[in-house]
Known about the structure:
Elements: E1 6-10, H1 17-28, E2 32-34, H2 36-48, H3 58-63, H4 77-87, H5 90-105, E3 109-113, H6 116-120, E4 126-131, H7 134-145, H8 154-174, E5 187-190, H9 196-210
Parallel strand pairs: 1-3, 1-4, 2-3, 4-5
Bound molecules: cytidine-5'-diphosphate (2 copies).
One cytidine-5'-diphosphate (CDP) binds next to helix 2, helix 4 and helix 8.
Amino acid sequence: xxxxxxxxxxxxxxxxxxxxxxxxxxxxxxxxxxxxxxxxxxxxxxxxxxxxxxxxxxxxxxxxxxxxxxxxxxxxxxxxxxxxxxxxxxxxxxxxxxxxxxxxxxxxxxxxxxxxxxxxxxxxxxxxxxxxxxxxxxxxxxxxxxxxxxxxxxxxxxxxxxxxxxxxxxxxxxxxxxxxxxxxxxxxxxxxxxxxxxxxxxxxxxxxxxxx
Length: 212
Ligand code: CDP
Ligand code: CDP
């Protein structure tokens, strides 16, 4: 019997990894795991405990379970930063490897993150690296978060989001432990001029080709 199908979706912040990975999972009837939520849940726990997310976070990472990932307070700017800080700690990453590998062990899975194709599943049958320009990513993240799409200071808000994404990507790419990097055998999808539907169609073509 062939090994369960694992699809790795990596890339920088707000590139559309999660949107693609969820749609791929639905289309292929595979379980889906947003691995960023593991680091967000760890960062959230540090903040809730009154701890500095830059200090050792392995104790809080050990407490993270799949149930924590449905918390509704994980996608706020404070947790973006806390997640990136705890994610730079090798001990935290080691603790969270197990959840990710176990998740895909039985039925395969689509996982999105930063190091899925390089560290978590270096043998994944399909590895996608999803990118978009900083300007496109900042606009997408702002549109996701804003409550006032016609805000008069819209451009200034988007510029602020761009700075935050750039800082987080720089930290994620330059850390020693599992930096954000495309696996040598990853297939890149540059999504600036593509809709989410077009990205899904392209990814499904790649999957069909790689799993023939
Ligand atoms: O959705 P977005 O791309 O903004 O972030 P995320 O995927 O939820 O990840 C939040 C943070 O967790 C990232 O900035 C990384 O520092 C970290 N992360 C990681 O180190 N490795 C992963 N596999 C996933 C996320
Ligand atoms: O998971 P990641 O942080 O990489 O990005 P996301 O949260 O999946 O996507 C950010 C936003 O971009 C979502 O609102 C998507 O609908 C939108 N988007 C996309 O994912 N793909 C495109 N080709 C265009 C827009």
